[in-house]
Known about the structure:
heterodimer; A: 3 domains; B: 212 residues; alpha+beta
Amino acid sequence: MGRFPEPPRIWPFTLIASDSPLDGRVKRIYEWLDKRFLATPLIAKAQRTINFALPSTLTRQNKSKILWLTYPYYYAGAITAFLAILQGITGLLLASNYVPSGVGDPGTSTPAYSSVQNIMTNLPLGALIRGIHQWGANLLVAALVIHAFWAFFRNPYRIGREITWVLGVLSLFLALAYSFTGYLLPWDQLGYWAATISIQIMRAIPFLGDFLAQLLLGGTGLSATTLTRVYFYHVSLLPVIALVLVGAHVVLVVLQGVSEPEEAWKTKIQKQVAPLFGPFFPQQILPVMIIALVTLGVVLLLGTFAVQVPGDPANKFLTPQFIVPEWYFLWAYGLLKWVGWVYDLVQFTPPAAVFGVDLLSAKVIGILVAGAMFLVLLLLPVIDRGREVRALWRPLKTAIGVWWIGFLATLTLYALNEILSAYLAIPINTTNAILGSIVIVLPIIAATPTYLILSHHLAKMKQ
Amino acid sequence: MGEKGSSESAKKPRRPIGRRQLVKAMVSVGILGTIVSFLSLLTSLLPSPQGSEQQGQADNVFRYGAEKGVWYSDKSGTEVNLADFDQVGKGAGVLWRGTYPAIVIRVDESKLQGATATNGLLAFASSCTHLCCIATWHLDRPNEDVIYCRCHDGIFDPYNIVNDAMPDGTKYQGAKVVGGPPPRAAPLIPIEIKDGKVSGTASNLAIYSYCE
């Protein structure tokens, strides 16, 4: 080959090797392309990286073998990536049939609303495509949440991987931005009012609120301008940001290797589990593909049989009953309500203005608490410098994590107070009192024994 | 940066500004200027004054709202008549000036504190002062005489009119917050009755624009 180096003997280069069944024509095509792109060294390097770097750390050093199927949460990241691709494909199809215009009288069918109706009823396979997009989004966030919680408890963000973690948290935020913008697009009552509440919450951000709302959403109230702008974010700006953020996240994971389960250290298990350490293709990608196919099946089923039809057209003069945001925003929604309930409980009336701004009202406190949570998550590699991977060996952190999950879960429940009150026929004040107490008590009840048992366990192990 | 370089050279005449320094300074200014001028394009994202939405009917007469399953449902969009409010406690969701959602209520004047009703009627802006959902009368809580917001359980008492102020300091009168998260009273809309039609008198529209 002269100045062209011999391609490495790993897939897909094995296809053009001299002993490949495809020898001949394929190889000639490859050489023709290679003379023009001069990319063989680069591709070969990338191939080696992907093939040998993925589970690179301890398993590799110890020549151990880990069956990834034993650790299903290891697939959450891959499933997220798979669903993101699915969202991209269905999103392209939807975007080419959607009209981003909310111009029209309140309560009447706007171009945006009727184009979604058109997708649902007239477009061939339109309802299925929209169903897949809808459920894909839900499952994507679910996979992402599992992925994030796994990462929280197994701290793969320890020294050397901090940026991977930060990029991941930003991607989580990005997914929520995608969801927020997507929820509004049908321009129906539910989306409209969920977005109205979100904008008003955004406006309450001290000092910056009104400016941010105007810059990002084209006004301090919801209008047709907002819809066009939100559509632009959803189909144009966010995808670019996502490619950069998620791309960098995945590249870092590939370069640094996956942070492995602690069992990788244990020789006993190494002998028991089937070999799965090996090249990216086919050993590692195979189980991912199996789970991706199962996920696809689930999305197809849900998208076919459980697609959510848009409600009444948006009417800015009529708030519908039971406005609920998507399930993964419920905790934030519940947080605002719950802070208000606590204020009522302790008979605290926040002053109208502190330093000239509304700073202590329930909604601002809610925003600040949610913002603080996000900030803590973002800065976790700096806050938590511990190097212990095993959650059971870190009593305090695991207990805090348990408290946090409990807090988010009970706030989610609190967000549904009106619905629960209506269905269980309990007066709203009683419902609030019960749910509000649960938010205070349950996370502590869950976290305290966790801490006590784990520290006892740790003390015993150290002896 | 260019100015700084030249002022330095003015102080130290022995070290005249070198060509390399000059080029560095000019390139820096150029890059900075390019960035700033590109950032200035972001101002196009701020809402333009002409681009804001058109005003609805600018007359002051209240028109019935679009709520379903209530006594005024079949009158939706028509003008509000005094005669419709024939008993105490009767109220309706209405639209004022084509823009502002409001509530008109027939109140028991003997219980009313802090204001006087016009022919027994009071009107309040019904955009919740919390997060701008539209509050309702007797819709979710038919047995309680409160203005109720279904989004976050905000409750306003139309019988207790208090003085309050908007974030910008504008003083106004409104229905007191008696429950839930709303930070301010629901603004009262002064009523005027002409030929049996109920309308709100526009004193200072800025008071009612908190959700725009």
